[in-house]
Amino acid sequence: MMDQEEEEEEEKLMAKRPSKVVDVCTPMCCLGYLARINLLVAVSVGMYVRWEVTSEPMILVIFILGLFVLAIAGILHYYFAMEKASLSLFHLWFGFLLGLLCFLNSPEFGSNVKELVANYLLIASAVMKAVWAIFERICSSVHYKPTLLTSVEWLELLGFGVASTSMLLQKSVAIIGLVVALGALIVDLRMKSLLSLPNLISFALITSLVFFQALGIPANPYALGCYLARLLCEPVLDVYFSGLGPSERWMPVLSLGKVWRRLSLFPLCVMELAFFVLAALKLGHLELWYLVIPGFCLFGLFWAICHIILLITTWGFHTKLSDCQKAWRAHQSGRRSLDQVMASRGIRHFCLISERLVFFTVLSTVILGAVSWQPSNGLFLSALLVVLPLESLAHGLFHELGSCLGGTCAGYALVIPTSYCSASGQPTLLPPDHVQELNLRSTGMLNNMQRFFSHHMIQTFGCDYSTSGVTMEAVQNKLRSFLELRTADGPRHDTYLIFYSGHTQKGSGAWVLSGGESLQLAQLLELWKEKNAGHGSRLIVVLDTENSLPWVKEVRRVDSVYAAVQGAELSASGLDPEAGDAPLLGDFTAEWVEFNCNPNSDTQWCEKGRTVTATYGVSKRWSDYTLHLPTGSDVAKHWKTHFPKATYPLVYLSNWCCGLNLFWLCSIFLRCFKRCKLAWFPPAVLDTGQGIKLVHS
């Protein structure tokens, strides 16, 4: 009986849930359908007015054909359940009809009452579309997917472009260029490019004030405004509402194959060349020849150099991305993401430098467009509107990847399994009966660290294992070589991680080495300062020892470097030693690696009664750390590697402009706040930003 009652209650709950969803979705659906019906009526009335005033039979034919197409769309939707096909016909045809309403305009229509009704209906349709889009996003009923253009946008853009073929060839080509510019602007907004909003403003101003006047077309502002509002409303709102991360937004580009990405450079080059040729037509205007000719020659040369750099930079990025895709597909069975592969291959450093270079490309286009401004040339205006969002997309791609990708990391592990000491405190060889067990635990630690290095795409310098101890000279030489390690592109790694497990001194936590010597934290930091002088890398030391707490406390007093120590405490209080449950070296490593490599790990570091507890300490300046930014020498090396000597003067201009810090006062207050927060309220889990997490019990 109880089971039946529970099943009945569940059925009631399941019956109630859909009604709530319907209650929420019904107003949105009604508003969306009402916007479409308004648009249908407005287009019908507008086309009727044009036929009535002009008596043009072709308009009547198009109008009747439109009604026929809408009838077919309705039949496909309601009788054959072909919703996608019907909506495709609907949006394609309405893009075409809105284009005709926009282009077939005359001052005679202004005094017609039916035309006024059609204009008001167009405004109402655009407003309802905007309210519908806002309401959907506030109610979180929009499921975002990585895409450049939706099918609706493609079809309405295509329909509007087809409508332009009713005019002369030159005007038609200019309007098709405007449609391409609108599509590029939509992609620019959806990708949240840094320059997308300035591009939107410039597009609106040029289109409304100059473009149609240059073509001599008395465009209907209501039809044009309705068309633009319908297409731009959702991308503009998604600049705020979209929750997709940078790499998710750009995934349609990053996941393209090598051939398609290379071929995408061809239309870009064609558009850039067309813009330059159209800009050169300004030289035929001789009113201010003494300003136009020298200005065009100077800024035209600057534009050409910048765009050669853009082409080389984009080609180099595609080459690096292809290598990352190969590595990602080779390890696709694991849990690595493409982001991790790109971060490990130094894509972030490449993008930070490329962002500077592409910014000068955008700047050169703006300057050349201003110098060769032609308000009476519709082709020039459309070409300018196309190239600006395309270059903005390139700048946005490099900016987003440079800010979201983690830095590079190098790792080194040292395990010295000596747990017995002589009277002088130095390690001695183990008894034979403990050798096998300790070797197994040490091998387990090394395997765990190799898993950790592999999972986080850390460049492994080595995993050393010695049962007879290591001399001070050997350790220092090994550490010096490790701390000198650099990426394949030349700059230092952002993070250097050292793992150590072995015998340590009780009071100081120093590593006990053979020959009566020991390595103090101060000595390790001196090596670090020597090798990291003039660079902003950071050092992380992970200790699986019995006396790691002294190093954790000592690093908190260090002020001059970015350093952190992750340690562990083994507590055997309350445990029966004969039961064999006492914690041993290697237990912390196993749990810490599992926590860092498995996002579904159930490890609770703050759980009471733990026998293995974790603790970490960071230097005073740790919160000031930022991932390595390209220095002047980095930019110069990059330039010499990828670009011809004729472009070298831009190195100095790039370094000077990017070296300006206009918000230095705000950065001081923010730095102080972060330091106080980390010192007074350290988090239980400190994310270093590269997937490596320091933990505190």
Automatic annotation (TrEMBL):
CDD domains: TMEM168
Keyword Transmembrane helix attached: yes
Subcellular location(s) of the protein: Nucleus membrane
Annotated coiled-coil segments of the chain: none
GO cellular component: nuclear membrane
Membrane topology qualifier: Multi-pass membrane protein
Membrane-traversing stretches: 58-80, 86-104, 116-135, 168-187, 194-216, 263-283, 289-312, 357-373, 650-670
InterPro entries recorded: TMEM168
Record has Iron-sulfur as a keyword: no
Keywords (A to Z) from UniProt: Glycoprotein, Membrane, Nucleus, Transmembrane, Transmembrane helix
Family: Belongs to the TMEM168 family.
Listed PANTHER family: TRANSMEMBRANE PROTEIN 168, TRANSMEMBRANE PROTEIN 168-A
Name the UniProt record assigns to this protein: Transmembrane protein 168a
